[in-house]
Structure to design on (265 residues):
C-alpha cells in the first residue's frame, strides 16, 4: 500500500515520523514510533517528541516547526551553554507503520532552544528562510571585511598555530606554557580548538587565554590548537601576516562623512 493511500484513508493510517539531526559529522536519529527504525543506513531510536503542525505559507518565517522534548535530549543540550559551532540541520521523514515508502515532510535547521523546567522547546526554521538572507556582505569600511582565515582572507591558519596541553582551567580561562611562545595579545581575536570544537579567544595575557563562551571538553590535560588573532586593521594585516594584498577594508577613506549633511570644511 502506498504512502498516499494510507495518508488519505479514513482509518488505515498509522503515521511514524523520523527526525534526523545533523551537525558536521554527528548525526542524531530518533523516531516518534515505539520501535527502532532503520532507514537509509541510519538507526532511529524511539524518543518522546511532540511536534507543532506543518504549515505552508508564502511567508517563510511562518513555515517553521517547534519540537517539545525532555531537557536532557541530546540535540537540546547542544544549546545549553552556548550555540554549537555550525548549523544543526533537521530532516523530517514520514511513513506509515508496515509500509516501506517514506516521504520528506520537512527540512530546515535548528534556530534556538528554550529551556523551561524539565523540558525544552526546539525551534526550527524552514530551509527556505535561506532565500531571504542577504547575498552581499561587503561594506565600504576602514576595517577588513573578511573573516580571519577564510578564502577572502587567504591566510593558512596552520602557519599561525600553537599546539600544546592545558595546565589549568577556570571558567572561561585556560592556561598553558605553550601560550608563552608568543607575546601577549598575539592570540587575541583568534580561536582555541579542543576536540575539533573552536571558541574565540577574547584576551591573551602571558600563559593565559580567555574564551568567548564555554567550550565542552575543556579540562586540565586537554590537547589544544590555538590560532593567532587579528584586529582587522591594515597595519596588523601587513606587519603580522604579510597579507596586505588581501586586505578587505579601505584604510584611507575620509574619517569625515561627506554625505552627513553638515559642512566638511
Amino acid at each position: 500500500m502506498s504512502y498516499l493511500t494510507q495518508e488519505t484513508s479514513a482509518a488505515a493510517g498509522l503515521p511514524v515520523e523520523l527526525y534526523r539531526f545533523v551537525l558536521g559529522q554527528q548525526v542524531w536519529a530518533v523516531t516518534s514510533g515505539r520501535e527502532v527504525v532503520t532507514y537509509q543506513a541510519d538507526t532511529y531510536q524511539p524518543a518522546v517528541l511532540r511536534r507543532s503542525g506543518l504549515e505552508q505559507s508564502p511567508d517563510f518565517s511562518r513555515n517553521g516547526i517547534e519540537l517539545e522534548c525532555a531537557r536532557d535530549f541530546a540535540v537540546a543540550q547542544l544549546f545549553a551553554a552556548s550555540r554549537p559551532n555550525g548549523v544543526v540541520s533537521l530532516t523530517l521523514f514520514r511513513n506509515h507503520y508496515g509500509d516501506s515508502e517514506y516521504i520528506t515532510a520537512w527540512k530546515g535547521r535548528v534556530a534556538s532552544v528554550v529551556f523551561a523546567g524539565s523540558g525544552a522547546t526546539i525551534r526550527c526554521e524552514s530551509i527556505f528562510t535561506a532565500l531571504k538572507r542577504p547575498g552581499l556582505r561587503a561594506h565600504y569600511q576602514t576595517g577588513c571585511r573578511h573573516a580571519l582565515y577564510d578564502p577572502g582572507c587567504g591566510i593558512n591558519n596552520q602557519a599561525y598555530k600553537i599546539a600544546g596541553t592545558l595546565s589549568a582551567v577556570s571558567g572561561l580561562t585556560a592556561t598553558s606554557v605553550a601560550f608563552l611562545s608568543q607575546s601577549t595579545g598575539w592570540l587575541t581575536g583568534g580561536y582555541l580548538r579542543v576536540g575539533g570544537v573552536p571558541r574565540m579567544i577574547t584576551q591573551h595575557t602571558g600563559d593565559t587565554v580567555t574564551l568567548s563562551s564555554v567550550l565542552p571538553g575543556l579540562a586540565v590535560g586537554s590537547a589544544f590548537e590555538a590560532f593567532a588573532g587579528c584586529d582587522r586593521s591594515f597595519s596588523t594585516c601587513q606587519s603580522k601576516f604579510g597579507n596586505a594584498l588581501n586586505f578587505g577594508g579601505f584604510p584611507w577613506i575620509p574619517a569625515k562623512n561627506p554625505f552627513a549633511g553638515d559642512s566638511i570644511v
Q: What stands out?
A: The mean pLDDT is 87. The domain at 157-246 is CATH 2.40.30 (Elongation Factor Tu (Ef-tu); domain 3).
